[in-house]
Amino acid sequence: MSRDGPLNSLATRKDDVAKAYWINTFRAIRDPKKLTEYIDLAGPAMRESGGHFLARGMPARAFEAGVLERTVLIEFDSVEDAVAAYESPAYQRALRALGDGAERDLRIIEAS
Fold this sequence. Notes:
By secondary structure, the protein is of the alpha+beta class. The chain has a single domain (18-110), classed as Alpha-Beta Plaits, CATH 3.30.70. Helix content is 41%, strand content 28%. The chain is globular and about 40 Å long.
C-alpha cells in the first residue's frame, strides 16, 4: 500500500497490469486417455504462452459446497495473456485432443 493511503495505492495498481489466474476444474473425467493427451499438449502450450503452473491435482480438502475434483491454477502476467493462451493454436490443439473426454469449468480472474 502507498504511504498516501489505500485510494492512491489502488490508482497506482490500475496503471500497472495485474496478474491473472487461470482456474480450471475438471467436473467429470469421461476418458482418461483423452485427458492424458490433453495434458501432454496443454502443459507446453501454457508455458509457451507465459503461464506458470502454481498448483494442479486433487484438492487436499474441500469445504462448504466444494467438491474434490482435479483443479489447475496457472499464473499469467495479465488477463490478456491468459486469454491469448486459451485462444492460441497450441492450446486449441489440446482442446481438440480432449474433445468430450472431460467436463470442465475454466475461469480467468484478475489479481486484486
